[in-house]
Amino acid sequence: MLTKRQNLWETLKGGNPDRFVKQYEFMNLIMEASVTMAGFPAPGQTSKAAWGITWMWPEGQIGPFPVHDEEHKVLKDITEWRKYVQAPVIPTDDETWAPAIAHAQAVDRNEEFVTMMAAPGVFEMTHHLMSMEDALMALYEEPEAMHELIDYLTEFELAYAKTVIEKIHPDALFHHDDWGSQINSFLSPEMFKKFFLPAYKKIYGFYKANGVELIVHHSDSYAANLVPFMIEMGVDIWQGVMTTNNTPELIEKYGEKITFMGDIDSGYLDLPDWQPERCAEAVERACRRCGKHYFIPCLTMGGPDSIYPGVYAQVNQEIDRMSREMF
Question: Molecular function terms in GO for this entry (predicted)?
């Protein structure tokens, strides 16, 4: 039986995997000392996190989002972004990093990838600072200022990457940045290429040049029109691929260059009254239509969990069943 790492590589290269890769099983996420994720609220809370962004998680909702009224919006004028935007301090002391280092050292790297999680991504940061509407309008109305802001965010990511690599020597990177809705990308491919492709080529190129073997990018959305850019920037696995992307078609077209992780929509299964039978149906459909190579069956949620307890574990059970049937 192949190890989790070996089975992953066989899947990615179109070789001889002996079972389906089971969701996030190959990534051991190092969440400690994550500068950009510190300060997120719990359900029912409001808090101020990195970059001075105020987050609110209303009771009954499945997650938090930045508050963008005039009082709480960080970036009030893109032409004066230097006045409003201040990158958080990246800690370098041993005490802060001790839990992350201990976690990384405890991972069996023959079995799992020591994986650094980075979120929010560059595009998300632009609209977290000033709202989605302001960010999208600024790309058209103030492109020079937006390029400057994106460069600033990119330099922060590179500085953070340098510290992460020095401290825990990750094998993999799991990077969040949602690039679309369920039916289309937020930006046209032309706009994405102009503003965000250069940033990600720098970021992912830096990780790859410094010992990181695997880049996993999360975008639980439609982004089929951006796959060529994912390949160009160095993404090995696109996680969060919704069924609206036509995953089998993407595998046929791009499979030798990138692997697709998803095709099991969390919005369809991860519900208060979730049903095991529905999980079984969705997993079987994904596995049979997508096949054994260049595909990892997975909920589209950006982490090894589900909103409602039991869904993630049930999907794992169904993937095991499909491995027994198809391998």
Answer: methyltransferase activity; uroporphyrinogen decarboxylase activity
